[in-house]
Structures are given as C-alpha cells and as structure tokens.
Amino acid sequence: MVQKSKTVKKQENKKATKPPVKKVVKKEEDLEPQKDLVFARVKGMRDILPQDSKVWSKIRSKMEEMTKAYGYSYIETPLLESANLFVRSVGKGTDIVEKEMYVFDGVDSAGKVALRPEATASVVRAYIENGLNKTPQPVKVWYEGPMFRREKPQANRYREFHQFGCEVIGDDHNPAMEAELISLAYNFIKDLGIDTIIHLNSIGTVEDREKYLVELVSYLRSKRSYLCVDCKRRINKNSLRVLDCKVRGCQSVIEEAPHIVDWLGDKSKEFFMSVLEYLDELGLPYKLVRGLDYYTDTVFELFPVDKDEEEDGSQSALAAGGRYDALVEHLGGQPTSACGFGVGLERVVNKLKEKSKNGVVEDENDIKIFFAQLGIQAKRRALGIIEELRKDGIFVGHNLAKSALKAQMEIADKMQTSYTLILGQREVQDSTIIIRDMESGIQEIIDQKKLKVRLKKILSQLM
Question: Could you give the CA distance from residue 298 to residue 310 in angstroms, rounded to a whole number?
Fold first, then answer.
C-alpha cells in the first residue's frame, strides 16, 4: 500500500478546513452595465443640440447687451439650496413646494436640500448672507441658468428649464424701477423678433390684500360647486391662486369675482397709477387683468401678441414679474423693497422657431472668411495663422478634419462666406497665401505677413 507523503496530507487538510466562500450579491448600482443597453434622457429633461446653438447664443448675447445698457451686474447662485428657503419664500401651500420640487436629504447637517425651482429666493438669500445691503443701493443684478420642477412633462414644457431674470433690491419702493424692469423685459423679447403685450395688475399692500381676501373667499365659497378640484382646495389655502386657474369650467366664476383694484388703498392706487404713467411715457402696450397672484403691488406678465386664444395662458406667457417688498424681511433680512422678473428661455426659443421657416432659426453669419488648407504642412501652419488672426480680432471659419479642397470649398459655400483663404504646400514654402473672392472667383496671392492688413481692409468693405 502506498502511503501519502506528509506534504500531500497537509494540503488535503488545508482544503478540508478552508472556510466556505460567501456568495457576493451585487447591489443594483454595482452591476456592470449591459453591453446592449441604450441610455436615454431622464423623463422631462432635454438636450440642446448644436443646430440650436445659434439661437441660444443670440439670446445670451442679447441678455448681456440689455443688462449692460440698463446697469445690471451678473450674479450666480447654487443649483442646490435649502428646501426650507423655497418653502418660506414660495409658500407651503403652493404646487411648486407641494408637488414640483426635487427634494433630497442633505449632508453635513444641511437638512433637506432642493434643486432650485426658481431664482428670486436664491438671489435674496445671497443678498442677505453676503451683506449686499451694505453696498450702494439699489442692488441691480441679472442671472441666467437652469431651474427644476417635477411637473408633468408636456409639449415644450420640461422639468429642467432655463430662465433669464433681473432683480432690483433696495429700490426704496420706487415705481420707476417696475417701469425699468418691464421695459427691459419687453425690449429684450422684442429685439429678438417677438412682439408682446403686457398684462398688468396690482395686488396692493399686505393690508390691502387681507381685506380683499375676506371678500374673495366669501365669493368663492358661494361658487364652490362650479370650481375644479384644485380650486376647491385653494379657496382656504391660497385663494388668489384661483384667479390664475386656466380650467375652462372656472372661467365664468373668475370673470364675476370681485376686482382687487376696488380694494386698494389710496397709496397703492397712487403707486400703481405712477407705474402706468411710466409705461404710457414709454409707449409700451399693456392691458389690465385680474389675477396674477404674486408678491405685493405691481405684477405683470408678457404674452406674444399672436397667442392662440385657445392656448393655456400659463404655457404661453414668455415672462412674468412683480414687486416683492416683504420677501427680504421674510427670509431674515431687514425690511427692504424689491422687484424683478423672469423670462422662460425655452418658450422664447420655441416662439422664435414658430416664426421661422422649417422650425430653424436663421442667424446672421458673422464669419465672412473661410480658411482652407491642403497637405500636412499646410494643416500644421493653418492652426498658427488662425490663432494669430484671432488675437487680432479676425475670425475665420475652418474645418481641419477635411483635407480635400472641394469638400472645404463646399463648407465655405454653405457658410456663405465672402472670401476663402487657401494655403497649400507651395504657399507654406513661399510664406504666401491665396485669397479667393467667392462671388467672382478672382484670386490673389499675398505675403503672409501682409494678411492681417489685407483682411481688415476686406472686412471693412463688407460692413
């Protein structure tokens, strides 16, 4: 009988005493992604694609132009704020807070945090926290960026959307500031090519509103059976919101509701009339409307003049704003008057597309010169020339991914450039470059050192 060696016995003993292997169950988030998995956008989100970049650039350029002209400085606040900031500013009983905010558990004892559903509260928080009340007043700021609301996705309505807005804080309750904001919003949209009409109202002071609410609630209770489910709930929670309802069945009740202007005090009426006088002086088109539950005194919305009467008003308003004199104190600051507005940029973009051919917004081509290159040496040299021209304020179109002259000339033709620079192997060796007139086909060869001077002369003639 063959005996096993001591080494073999030790190995067998090790195998016998080896602890059982625990089966590791991977969590769902730890699993490897499937190779055939196709990722898609999260529901309610959207992509802004290259073909839309021109219209977005045009809008952003107009923002900077208008805010500079009116003396507003740029401010940027975080996407993530304390959820209580919006509960306190927007209101606990509102749809935004109850249904639409993205709320998460914070870290570092931050409590509940939320993706901002609007920007005014964030700007006021920044004003208070950073001591901007100690700087020269009023503080006039503008912002642009994404907001988030967990609404039911609809056509042209997204859960992530972009707003451009202006806020004036510490204006000493001056009606001229409302007029300035309305003028800025109106002319910003008008300069983009959209005609609007201003819907205007006043909800007076807090005291005026309290007196009016007693009358309004009494009236709405008497008409409760005619109201939609949401409006029935709003009667006691936020009765002014009923006046903003777009449900057809509620319209007859809203039309017969008491007017808030009949309940304004003398000071509120005088203030509102002052705003209207400014607008009359500016020649801005407006009409008085009821509703527009927001803040204190003046409230306004801008609608396109060609709005379909059947279209939901809440969906067609391009901008909205008003005065919020109580908000700064409500968020922990000193009593400070303020007002502002916000523009829904997706709505502006969609309106521009409606007005354009085939849904594509054409923009003036500011690139008048194209740069074409032939050969490896020319391609290397082209990058240097393009950068030298850029530093001198001369911008040229180009596509270094293309090598064939024909393909590059087709791009130049599509861009509708007036001239094309052509750099080949011979031109690299001779330190020259060809300038071709795209309309006549006439070409000239010049020294590369003289290119800047020649192009500046060409561009001045094209202006």
Answer: 27
